[in-house]
Amino acid sequence: MDEEYQHSNHDLDENESFFSEAESPGTFHNPFIESVRPLIELIDSLRLIGIDEDIGLPSIAVVGDQSSGKSSVLEALSGIALPRGSGIVTRCPLQLKLHKIKKGPWSGTISYRDNKETFQDPLKVDHLVREAQNKLAGNTVEICEDLITLEISSPDVCDLTLIDLPGITRVPVHGQPEDIGKQIKALIEKFISKRETIILVVVPCNIDIATTEALRMAQDVDPEGHRTLAILTKPDLIDRGAEADVLNIVQGKVIPLSKGYIVVRCRGQSDINNKIPLAKAMQTEIKFFRNHRYFSFLLNDGRASTQCLADKLTKELKSLPYLTEQIQTRLLIVQRELKNYEQGPPMEEEMMGPFLSKITMKFSDSINELSRTGHSKHINIYTLLRPVFKTWDMHLRETQETFAEKVKEMLEMYNEMHRCRELLTFTDYCEFERVIKEHVSDLQDPATKLMKRVREIVQNEFKVVCDSSFEQYPQLKYIVSNMINDIQSKQETKVEKRIKEFIHMEQLVFTQDKVLQQKLNDSDIPKKAGLDTSDVSHYENGGDDYNIFNSKGCALLDTRNLTPDKLALYYEIVYQRLTDYVPMLVTLFMLKDPAKILRHQTMELRIEADLVKLLSEDSERGCKRADLKQRLDRLMQAQDLISSRL
Q1: pLDDT tens, 203-250?
Q2: What gap in Å lies between CA 98 and CA 62, rounded to an integer?
Q3: Which residues partner with 108 through β-bridges?
């Protein structure tokens, strides 16, 4: 094994161009970084327009146990000194955005919530980050999910965006809540569970990697390890003889990861105490790996040093095809959802009048169609009215039987209870007329109930059309709904009056002779009375011949025994008039006429109306449409940005 590593070291000596000592320490020189800079800038541009609210943008989340070397790795990549210390130092997610510039001074910007500050002194980073965390999480040891963004522009950094997360802890210290461990894990999972996030797990070389909580959490959300990259830190602290174990880990023999492992040696606490610059520390790192008996070949393989890590991370962010697909998919979803929200009212007041006319005309057309054919979006109104009319018809038929029973009962007890001053064997017509009048009078209440039920159905269907037509305009919907109520109330009064009038007319007990003659001819009553053709007179009226019983014929039929049958025939005439007339009356006054009145009144709404108030939208619906439009604009803008960079 030693010969293999010595051979690798010899190959490295022959390729001194790889991180030569002449190279400016701390500066990342790699042609690939230049090729991915447009991608990094594109991702930042997409974040700037807020597209990360709609799709998941590729990002790198750094996770690790406390004291795993997270801060050292981030320092090595960014060239800035981040807060250090014992316990939980990172108490808020920290988004570190690195921008490589060709020339110019170092510049930093820190932003969180409504705060934003730009500074030019790298030494202020520690203070400003701690200050931000104190404002967000309090001057304690608790954590907060609010994001702090730290942007660094410098010639000595790579183009990269990282998210530093709180270190995993198991035992709460003084002042921390008992569930601090669960809080931190929940915060970490919130970031690493996104499939677009590359998980950068930082693990010290001198511990058992199988017991690392950070790697276990990464495996939970990324079982195949397709988006997990492990960083092994502190290779200079491993025990002698444990180098082979580290190599087995790097080679994926312990816990395989698709993206693999990279070993780095960053500035330690002693280096900080000795005030060794980051640039010098990176130079020392290269010499450490170059001269290491076991790890030197890893440098040549691109699996060791902060420089290799930076190259690997920038390469991992190259995911434009996936971004394009994600944006197109989300764009289709938003466009489809936006169709469910009709176009809102115009912002210009002079355009509101025509717009109001347009939507009220559409409503009027729907009401007209409902009145004319019965059709609405969800049902035909006549399928609701027909059973009501059928119930009325059935009630009338049932009353025919009760009417016949009343007449028979009257005949049986006529002399005892109904005969007035007439002589014995004579019959008073008025007594039978009274039975008809009383019976017909009882039909007024069920006829009125029919009318009220029809009003309920029509009014509900009108309101359904109203709600669907003006759903997003609560004030307009309220006014039209009140119109419907008022119109139906007035129409109900008219119909109730007409029903009373018609019942009163039926109490006149009248029908044309010819109508009753036809009923008698179609019955077996003449046969029972022994009538023949000589008992029928022939008249001529305007050229039309018709037959009617003569006096003898009428005398034969005018017998008390035939009265129940004759009155039953007359009641059939009453039944026929009522069974048709009441539904026709109700349909005309409660459906047809109200539709015309409603259409007329809604079309007049524009006259002297407060258009702004009428067209004020429902807040929830308006906000939803506005949100969808904003999302649509963002997605289209993102699509244009990506197309322009291809």
Answers
A1: 988 888 877 888 889 989 988 888 889 999 888 888 888 888 888 888
A2: 15
A3: 119, 152
